[in-house]
Amino acid sequence: MRNKIISIVTVLAMMVALTGCGNAKTTQEGNANVTGAPEAETSVTEAETEAEESTSATYPVTIEHAFGETVIEKQPERVATVAFGNQDVVLALGVVPVGFSAANYGVQDESGMLPWTQQKLKELGVTEPNVFQDTDGIDYEAVSDSNPDIILAPYSGMTQEEYDLLSKIAPVVAYPKTAWTISTEEWISITAKALGLEEKGKALISGMQDTIAEKIAEHPEFEGKKFVWISFNETDLSSLHAYSPEDTRCQFLYEFGFTYPESVSQYIKEGSYSLDLSAENADLLYDADFLIGYSSESAYAAAAADEVLGEIPALKNNAIISIESGTALSAALTITPLAFDYTIDEYVEKLAEGIGNIQK
Q1: Which residues pair with 217 in a beta bridge?
Q2: Rounded to a whole number, what is the distance in angstroms from the first to the last CA of the chain?
Q3: What confidence score (pLDDT) does residue 241 get?
Q4: What's the rounded mean pLDDT across residues 255-280?
């Protein structure tokens, strides 16, 4: 595999040959930067979109994000995505990306795609999607070769440098404020706005909310329960890793009526999406009714047997939800619309099982 991370000098030299596409422009603190990408053949150019908006979207559209704002002059026709899961939101809106990043977690085969992504592509008649093999870093050359007129990454952890380099290829929509923190609703809304498919985005959100409402009705015991999404290291129980209440995984659980204990959230720095705790301040977890995370059942058992950690009520009650790391379900908990449809029943069943152990 060729090196995916190329130097700024190499990227800039490559961009000299690019021709303007004219669909959008990116503005970052008043500094306009308009470039395009050369025509390139891909296997999805004949299946770029499935459906049209019932009403015409009004352009230009401006989307603010962590690195400034992107002004989209007209409806994009060639959409590329980078980072985890962004292609799923585009696909759920009926648009086939001209290229997207390989999934770097939970993949069970050599495709670089999770099962729900493959399923949706099949529904849209795409047999050879253009998957960027960029799990070791953004493949700028592959992104450029896909000839996009917009690059979407509202869920990502891209740096300013990566944003600047991608912007030499096409206008970029980055994350709103903090890396890797966005609600599924906001994720869909931003993507739909960029693509001129806002009504379709609203319908997608409404459908998910209807399903969640059905699940809540089936499980009234969920309401008000406090959780912490945390990982235990079986070989080093002194180190505990908790996700921020702003993390996408946590935000999705709020939809079911769950809450995050203030005792933990107040220690998480603004702008961070995780917190490293320790056995010494394990008492911060005492307010949690249940714990959820990617730790193995043996790791939870080791924590429960520990003299200090074993005092955490949720561990005492075995009110834990273990999501096996590296599985499709573990990858689905960064909730995209496609992952939601594929795994929601399994996920709710696991939640109900763990919460059933809470001692009233």
Answers
A1: none
A2: 55
A3: 84
A4: 80
pLDDT tens column, 229-249? 998 888 888 888 888 888 889
Between CA 269 and CA 271 the distance in angstroms is 6
Separation between Cα atoms, residue 153 and residue 173, nearest integer Å: 6
Q: Specify the higher pLDDT residue, 57 or 341.
A: 341
Q: Which helix (H) or strand (E) holds 292?
A: strand 290-293
Share of the chain above pLDDT 70, in %: 82
> What is the distance between the alpha carbons of residues 218 and 256, in angstroms, rounded to a whole number?
11
Helix (H) or strand (E) holding 330: helix 328-332
User: Is the confidence at residue 115, as pLDDT, over 70?
Assistant: yes
Helix (H) and strand (E) counts in the chain: 13, 14
DSSP run (H or E) holding 321: strand 320-322
State the SS3 of 100-128: EECCCCCCCCCCCCCHHHHHHHHHCCCCC
How many residues does this entry show for the chain?
A: 360
Task: Map residue 84 onto helix, strand or coil.
Answer: coil
Contact 233, 274 (CB under 8 A): no
Both structure tokens of 315: 């561990």
pLDDT of residue 273: 65
Read off the tokens for 157: 């952890």
The separation between CA 248 and the C-alpha centre of its own chain, rounded to angstroms, equals: 7
Residue with tokens 């669909």: 23
Strands 79-81, 150-152: pairing is: parallel
Element (H, E) at 212: helix 198-218
pTM over 0.70: yes
Do the Cβ atoms of 140 and 169 come closer than 8 Å?
Answer: yes
- The span from the CA of 28 to the CA of 36, in Å, is 17
